[in-house]
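Aim 2, interim progress: modelling of the adenosine-5'-diphosphate-bound target.
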Amino acid sequence: MNTHALQILHDTFGYQNFRGQQADIVECVATGNHAIVLMPTGGGKSLCYQIPALMRAGVTIVVSPLIALMDDQVANLQAAGVAAAAVHSGIPSEKLHAIAHDIRQGVLKLLYVAPERLVSERFVRFMHSIDIGLFAIDEAHCVSQWGHDFRPEYQQLGFLAHEFPHIPRMALTATADEETRADIRHYLQLQDAQTFVSSFDRPNIFYQVIEKNNGKKQLLQFIKSQGHQVSGIVYCLSRKRVEEVALLLQENGFNAIPYHAGLDMAVRTRHQKQFSQEDNVIVVATVAFGMGIDKPDVRFVAHLDMPKSIEHFYQESGRAGRDGLPAISWLCYGLNDWVLLRQRIQDGEASSMQKQIELQKVDAVLSLCETATCRRQLLLAQFDEVSEPCGHCDNCLETPVRFDATELVQKLLSCVYRLKQNCATSYVIDVLRGKDSDWVRRLGHDKLSTFNIGADLSDKEWRSVVRQCVAGGLLSVNLSHNQALQLTEASKAVLKGEQQLWLRPLKRDKKAVLSAPKT
Ligand code: ADP
Ligand code: ZN
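Predicted structure of the complex, ligand included:
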């Protein structure tokens, strides 16, 4: 162990020991090697470049995508007595001159820069005129279209390898799926880098996923079960819903505040501060809230709507329990969420390849919701991490016993077939359940052989069958055609009776766990 590193950890940052792989990473970079660091949020990535920055001669250039993050880091470093600065559009030009002066004098140890500035000709010229100790590229997943915060400028950062071949480079991120990793290696020219992968498990977080029937009511029930003495975050998909839910919680006596990009900057800043500094505050937010939030005692993160990727879900739910104490991730989902998310992607501006990627990601979330096996195992598999069932999620505590649903699924699939793959979920279910409506009669669907063959199941139960079929790839939803249910290649074997199908129970047990057992 490098005693110098340990001394800095202790004297400057006030910590006794390195965590996880921090010591190895510091050693690797401080001795001039390249590194890729994959560590979950809250794992302690910052020290991995801040300590080498203090060990090496010259200034360390840190690439960071968000001004708020930079300012935060700089403030923390200055408070610890480290000479650090940030350059971004909000910094007046006299200040920039002073910073350049400090760098030339060899006083400044860390300089935070946005990627678009770093790649500018002027800045490159400046970098050639100074002594640089290390390049640290934070939030390196921004380089990848697979990642959730794609920033095209990040892809240009590979030039550092050619222009500054003798300066070590490190990339840091909390997103670690294989595609993103490959992109980081490729675009940042880090083929020779040593890769450090930490476990992404957050053992103190209990995962619970429930089916939506009345989302707001279910949310309220969940939050009430947590008591009034906790801080939490509720994520919703739209601004309107954020406002509604914040109001609902306020009416029920909770100290709830809204946060979304449509609010005034001043209001947002005030609410963010309030959440960080006060106790027992619940923030109701869109995904705009969170990057750079480092509140240790968030006891729950609730998703009232389905997140658009497993990475989003992981990042957002990971804001719970940073202090290591028990915390809950609660997620409420419905087939409508899934359809809505897919529709948004379909209607969006992205290239068709990008859309395919995003659709796959949404589907993976549905699979996480529908799985009858350990949630954590599935989550960690997303980061290529192999694990045993955790014993600390809803499915582990009460493993859903699957039943043979072959006949039910056959009924559903043949009804979809008889309806010429032309009808949306609720209509298909109406026909299965023999609903006597004008529409059904006018279209002659009451004469179909599949009319009324599923009257023994409720609407909700059929929806569960549909969802599980969609998650299992037996049905697809045609977004360009009224969200009609359609058969897939895989459904043929089931229709022909060549394949048996086991589904999760259609009704969730009422006693589903609502508060996390103490770890
Ligand atoms: P990340 O960037 O990976 O999300 P941070 O670098 O912000 O994580 O670190 C998360 C928290 O953990 C910070 O409050 C930091 O001060 C603390 N921390 C990091 N390393 C250590 C350590 N070795 N000992 C104690 N606390 C640490
Ligand atoms: Zn589990």
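The first strand starts at residue 35 and ends at 38. The chain has 22 helices and 17 strands.
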